[in-house]
């Protein structure tokens, strides 16, 4: 059995979408891949709406195990998932890259946040399936 690939969810600030993706990855795919998140800049704290809604939906406290990190803080990464930056997305060497093109829900309503959380959950599950079924052609 190949060791689990390292997946990095990246965006510029590593405070909202990428943090939620890291948390959701740990919840639904920890048997398939290791989840990390990072950005090219950090924020002093994770987006508080994201923290609250992830806690409500999954009973997971992101602030207990996660913090805003730079790309340079990560171990070697096999799979890069870009959250959808309208600006230039950070570059990280990897064997596979996917862009999820998610809207940034920061500052928006809980409903808009939940739409993004549900998209992330669906995408994480799909990614886990692809890896499990060896569809990504990782070396």
Automatic annotation (TrEMBL):
Record has Heme as a keyword: no
Matching SUPFAM superfamilies: Phosphotyrosine protein phosphatases I
Keyword Acetylation carried by entry: no
Signal sequence range: none
Keywords of the record: Arsenical resistance
Taxonomy, superkingdom: Bacteria
Domain Phosphotyrosine protein phosphatase I positions: 5-130
A Pfam family this chain is assigned to: LMWPc
Protein name according to UniProt: Arsenate reductase ArsC
Species of origin: Acetobacterium malicum
